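DM from R.C. (forwarded with permission)

"hey, sorry to bug you on a friday — could you get me a structure for this? deadline for the figure draft is monday and I only need the backbone to look sensible"
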Amino acid sequence: MRGLLRPKNKKMDDLIISGNKQKPDLVFSATTGELRVSGQSLPENATLLYGPALDWIEEYSKAPAKQTVFSLQMKYYNTASSKMFFSIIKRLNIIYKGGVDVIIEWYFQSDDEDMLDAGEYFRDLVDIPFKFIPY
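My reply, with the result:
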């Protein structure tokens, strides 16, 4: 198992993807353990957009920060994006089960019951604690 760990002295790069009307901003920091996705997510190919994020988390999981906070601040997202968010959450759940403090911050507009319901659905499928934050 030791061979799978990233050496402590090897600094992992942050992942920063700037968004637009079709894709969200992704800002993942290996140093702070803050992973943020915000905006709208309507890409034609969600795998192409979120593939680098999944790869990044895979590498991050080898030597995660003491606490990891995944903040999802979406105005809207399509079904393909939803599947990718759940893939991210499942990978974070593995990190959580490995003993790392992981929290999901699920932001939703206070009048958007669908967004709240989606977060509650994801919460019920994993072990990670969720914080629901209306704005």
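R.C.: lifesaver. The CA atoms of residues 57 and 127 lie 17 Å apart.
me: no worries. The chain has one domain: 13-134.
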